[in-house]
Amino acid sequence: MAVPLNAIVLAAGQGKRMRSALPKVLHPLAGQPLVAHVLAAVRALAPRAIAVVVGYGADAVRAALAADDLVFALQDPPQGTGDATRVALDVLPSDGVTLVTIGDIPLIPVEALSRVAAAAAQGQLAVLTARVADPAGLGRIVRDDAGRVRAIVEERDANDAERGIAEINTGVLAAPTALLRDWVGRLTPDNSQGEYYLTDVVALACADGVPVVAELASDARDIAGINDRVQLAAVERIVRERRAEALMRDGVTLADPARIDVRGHLRCGVDVTIDVGCIFEGDVTLADGVRIGPYCVLRNVTLGIATVVEAYSHLVDAEVGSGCRIGPYARLRPATALGADVHIGNFVEVKASTLGAGSKANHLAYIGDTTMGAGVNFGAGSITANYDGVAKHGTTIGDRASIGSNCVLVAPVVVGAGATIGAGSVIAQEAPAGKLTVARPRQTTIEGWQRPAKSTSRRS
Ligand code: UD1
Ligand code: CA
User: Fold this and answer.
1) Mind listing the domains of the chain with CATH numbers?
2) Which ligand is nearest to the CA of 220?
């Protein structure tokens, strides 16, 4: 039978080096809090219980992470990673194996966590280590002449020889829960920071004759810790590169893989082309042959086959059919649904509206709270006046209606199928189907009218 697994994520620190009011673990990486990335990796192991240790900004961290499968343990005041682990062990089952990870290593791979947990299930203390070019600021793995791990020494407490060690502690370890509880209870704050270091359990395990194994991370970039905004930006760059590479391998053309930000899930069909500077957030799905022009923002959007979004367009919570042309400079706001072959041109804003197949609003328009049929032409400068200062009202436009330029449709209002609305009309009552409705003053020409002239008798 498999050994039950508990997991602990340490997220109580302030992260002073971020110089921020926001707790470090809530700083976003690729659109998600740092610690959410760690939690996703932990969850992939399907532990029976997960404890998140909170302290600095505890309410904000709890609110950001709240989920049924998490228990929160409050560490107050924060007195080091060993102290944080003790607090978490108190709210977890006391049997099985417990995996501990710090909350600021967002790229930690599931495979590495899994190896450490498996090694601990053999009755040992397992520590995830890495060999790095620059170990500055990290805990060093001290081995004896036989190569066995004897201790972890924090940089501040290390001597010159220890500082020269390139193998470092990643902040992930696992052990049989009973042993870990015992060691954590015996930690002392005898170090330069006066903190209870989780890393000191290694020396305690050695003293107890419990084997300590180091599992080496396969890629040192995966265990990059984030302590300041420079490191945050560096890790963001790694995520950007990895996601861009995965997209290209899946058949997406990127104008420049260094200039795309995928901050959520982007799913693409074949032969999708994405120009520079685009940002994808939430869940975005691009069907085959979609082309996205430069500097577009798409959040929770689905685009149909061969739809084109031109430069500088902003699309949020929208569903767009196939063969559509959006932009440049278009804005689709939440609850927009466009049928096939719809054209939304420059400086056109659509909100909470449905547009049927082949409808067009090519220039300078606002369509809000509207149900529009198919084949409608919505002229330049026309708008739906959907707000009376208190409530929003709907507009209904039938199939093949043609709304001239610079019209105002004062909602609630209905424009019948095939109706034509003359340019410059203010439509506040139903415009019947199939007829021309014009609502503007008639043009008149005044015969015999003389423009006033300046007096020419200036001589004196
Ligand atoms: C820690 C390790 C170090 C390792 C490095 C890897 C210790 C003593 N040091 O150092 O060996 O090389 O990570 O990146 O473990 N936290 C709490 N409560 C506390 C203190 C910290 O929950 O009282 C949490 C923080 O929120 C953070 C994590 O623990 O998520 C690590 O804390 P941090 O102060 O960044 O540790 P490092 O100095 O980076
Ligand atoms: Ca850290």
Assistant:
1) 5-223 (3.90.550.10), 240-437 (2.160.10.10)
2) 1
